[in-house]
Amino acid sequence: MIHDFLTWLGSTEWSVRLLESLWVWPLIESTHVLSIALFVGSAMMMDLRLMGVRFGTVRASDFTSRLLPWTRGGFVVMVITGILVFYSNPVRYYHNIFFRLKMILMVVAGLNIWLFHSRIHNRVADWDTAAPPPRAARVAGLVSFASWTLIVVFGRLIAYNWFDCDLQPQPGFVNWASGCMLPAE
Ligand code: HEM
């Protein structure tokens, strides 16, 4: 059902025009890459503070309150440009194993952000200058740092078609993980 819906989505006029555009697609993709600097860059600075690796002399609350607006702004640009890139070729990306791994890690990173803000950062006054920060904050920083690193790596690997469904035979696990629609034998 998802495959059929995405096949229809990919046949819509704007999806085809976006994929075939000379300048628009590269501009959107470049903005997707550029916004990594703002989003992942500022998020990783915060993770280094949370892990107690750097910026220990700056109060945690000052660090987060100054950086979060930039991080949030960068995230919005990443998601909008990412959705547009996805819209340009939905079926190919939906069955791309690296795109799927990236989306799974986005869920992990999102859960980690929710847990951090709802359970740890709301009591930042208790550990604002603690060195090192409490274990929960350090773990949240480490999970965030690792998940965004992997999201960037998998994002980069999406462009490589090593495991694409139309390059058969692929290992059984790859066909399963990519949801390849193989003809009945
Ligand atoms: C918010 C966190 C995100 C990060 C850090 C991220 C990171 C990346 C990176 C590093 C690339 C490789 C760019 C290149 O080298 O060409 C990429 C590509 C891509 N991203 Fe994202 N991305 C994010 C969100 C999204 C979202 C929400 C979507 C769509 C739902 C998305 C869809 C894509 C697609 C389809 C590509 C492949 C473009 C291609 O090479 O064909 N991204 N992303």
In summary, what is this structure?
With 185 residues, the chain is mainly alpha-helical. It has 9 helices and no strands.
User: What small-molecule ligands were found?
Assistant: protoporphyrin IX containing FE
- How much helicity do the residues have? over 70%
Described by the principal axes of the CA atoms, the overall outline is: elongated
Query: What is the N-to-C succession of helices and strands?
Result: HHHHHHHHH
Main sheet overview: none
Q: List low-pLDDT spans.
A: none
The radius of gyration computed from the alpha-carbon positions, rounded to a whole number of angstroms, is 20 Å
Number of folding domains?
A: 1
Q: How many DSSP E strands?
A: 0
Alpha-beta classification: mainly alpha
Number of helices: 9
How much of the residues is beta strand, in percent?
Answer: under 5%
| Oligomeric state | single chain
Calculate the mean pLDDT score and round it.
94
Please report the distance between the alpha carbons of the first and last residues. Answer: 21 Å
